[in-house]
């Protein structure tokens, strides 16, 4: 079936994997990628598909309601997959306002345009909002986040995502807008901006710089390979139940310090260094304010309803990721020039 799909934030880390998957796997769809190209957006993430006949890039801001409405009026999209967001917790602590503007107001601008354009004719229409497990807050040593877990966000980032999730649900409950939401755990893989733990550590190791571990490194995250997130999004877009929420996760919990030790072992091997060399770069630094202790997803609903399972073991995925960063030093060089140096200085100098 022919479909016109608007993907927002398609030049970012996860968005670029979703755009690539949809452009390649669904030649009868036309994919429109709306992205304002913030520091986190990069058209180099999409070089391999940029000339595909079923792909169009539009540089623009999701908070620009005139632009967003004119795109809906021109194309009457069948679906929206909304990923555009400010996404880094540390930046949200330093500057919450851009998170409120993009993550909350930007989402409402998109919802309004979908509502006005579809105007009650919701046959085969879908507004799919991509969210995070961080909206559920922090777990203790035991238990998992399910789709019924109460929202309890702690950082400005997770609070802004929680707010956008509530607004998406409100448009369903109030106006019957056909929506679906997924809340995913921490992603890793190629094209991730080196402000997040794994690519930041890989980049620092390549440059023989300290690996900053917050607090004692005891915090736990549930890691999912980004291409598995894209496959879950595909499954949910096509077969998810309207109005519902799906949790996505890898059943793959790692204490930060254990993850970093595993990464150091892989890097020793890949860089031909003596075992134990890279771990000498580990440096414990001041903890993040309001640092959530543990995230862990129960993805049973997604498995039972849609048959989705992660495809990779973590060690294999992490090795693939390291190989990608080692083979793409030009990409790292490009994204870490200029503004990145200021961010790094401010973020890590004081710690
Ligand atoms: P990212 O920061 O790598 O990419 C965000 C993209 O959105 C960039 O291309 C950026 O240019 C674009 N963007 C930002 N503000 C915009 C605006 N106002 N208008 C248009 N485009 C704008 O983020 P990511 O890690 O790829 O995350 C994508 C989505 O997935 C986010 O909604 C995030 O909350 C969610 N998510 C991320 C993770 C993770 O581990 N990274 C986990 C779960 C959910
Ligand atoms: P991050 O990649 O920022 O993702 P999130 O905060 O969304 O989970 O951080 C992952 C974990 O790693 C988190 O517990 C914070 C920690 N961390 C460090 O220890 N050092 C770092 O330099 C960064 C960026 C994160």
Can you characterise this structure?
The chain has helices at 13-25, 65-75, 89-94, 97-118, 156-175, 197-206, 226-239, 256-270, 300-306, 314-327, 329-335, 339-349; strands at 3-8, 29-35, 55-59, 79-82, 126-132, 179-184, 186-188, 211-214, 220-225, 245-248, 253-255, 282-285. It folds into two domains: 3-188 and 223-248, 3-Layer(aba) Sandwich (Rossmann fold), CATH 3.40.50.720; 197-220 and 253-291 and 312-346, UDP-galactose 4-epimerase, domain 1. It is built from twelve helices and twelve strands. The relative contact order is 0.13. Helix content is 43%, strand content 17%. The longest helix has 22 residues, at 97-118. It is globular. The strands form three sheets. The protein has a seven-stranded parallel beta sheet with strand order 3-2-1-4-5-6-10, with helices on both faces. A three-stranded mixed beta sheet has the order 7-9-11. A two-stranded parallel ribbon has the order 8-12. It is of the alpha/beta class and 351 residues long. Bound molecules: nicotinamide-adenine-dinucleotide and thymidine-5'-diphosphate.
Task: Give a brief description.
With 351 residues, the protein is an alpha/beta fold. The protein is 43% helix and 17% strand. The chain has 12 helices and 12 strands.
Could you give a short account of the major beta sheet? 7 strands, parallel
Provide the structure class. Answer: alpha/beta
Mean pLDDT: 97
- Give the topology string: H per helix, E per strand: EHEEHEHHEHEEHEEHEEHEHHHH
Q: CATH superfamily assignment of the largest domain?
A: NAD(P)-binding Rossmann-like Domain
Cα gyration radius (Å): 20 Å
Give the number of DSSP strands.
Answer: 12
Low-pLDDT stretches: none
N-to-C terminal Cα separation, in Å? 53 Å
The unique ligands bound to this protein are: nicotinamide-adenine-dinucleotide, thymidine-5'-diphosphate
The third-level CATH topology of the largest domain is: Rossmann fold
Question: Strand order, biggest sheet?
Answer: 3-2-1-4-5-6-10
Strand content: 15-25%
* CATH architecture assignment name of the largest domain: 3-Layer(aba) Sandwich
Shape: globular
Number of helices: 12
């Amino acid at each position: 079936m022919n479909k016109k799909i608007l993907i927002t934030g398609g030049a970012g880390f996860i968005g670029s994997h979703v755009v690539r998957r949809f452009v390649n796997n669904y030649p009868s769809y036309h994919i429109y990628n709306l992205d304002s190209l913030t520091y986190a957006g990069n058209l180099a993430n999409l070089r391999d598909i940029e000339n595909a006949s079923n792909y169009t890039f539009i540089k623009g801001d999701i908070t620009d309601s005139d632009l967003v409405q004119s795109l809906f009026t021109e194309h009457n999209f069948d679906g929206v997959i909304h990923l555009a967001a400010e996404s880094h917790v540390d930046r949200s602590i330093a500057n919450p306002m851009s998170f409120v503007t993009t993550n909350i107001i930007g989402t409402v601008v998109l919802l309004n345009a979908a509502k006005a354009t579809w105007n009650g004719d919701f046959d085969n229409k879908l507004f799919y909002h991509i969210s995070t497990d961080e909206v559920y807050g922090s777990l203790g040593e035991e238990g998992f986040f399910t789709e019924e877990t109460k929202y309890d966000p702690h950082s400005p980032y997770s609070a802004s995502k929680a707010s956008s999730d509530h607004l998406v649900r409100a448009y369903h409950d109030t106006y019957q807008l056909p929506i679906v939401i997924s809340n995913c755990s921490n992603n890793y893989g190629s094209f991730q901006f080196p402000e997040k733990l794994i690519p930041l550590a890989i980049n620092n190791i390549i440059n023989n710089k300290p690996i900053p571990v917050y607090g004692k490194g005891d915090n736990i995250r549930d890691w999912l390979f980004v291409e598995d997130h894209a496959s879950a999004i595909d499954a949910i877009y096509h077969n998810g139940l309207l109005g519902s929420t799906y949790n996505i996760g890898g059943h793959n919990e790692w204490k930060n310090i254990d993850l970093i030790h595993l990464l150091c072992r892989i890097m020793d091997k890949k860089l031909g260094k003596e075992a134990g060399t890279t771990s000498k770069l580990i440096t414990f630094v001041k903890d993040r304010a309001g640092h959530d202790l543990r995230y862990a997803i129960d993805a049973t609903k997604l498995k039972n309803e849609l048959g989705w399972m992660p495809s990779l073991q973590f060690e294999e995925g992490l090795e693939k990721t390291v190989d990608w960063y080692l083979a793409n030093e030009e990409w790292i060089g490009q994204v870490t020039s200029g503004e990145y140096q200021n961010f790094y200085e401010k973020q890590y100098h004081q710690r």
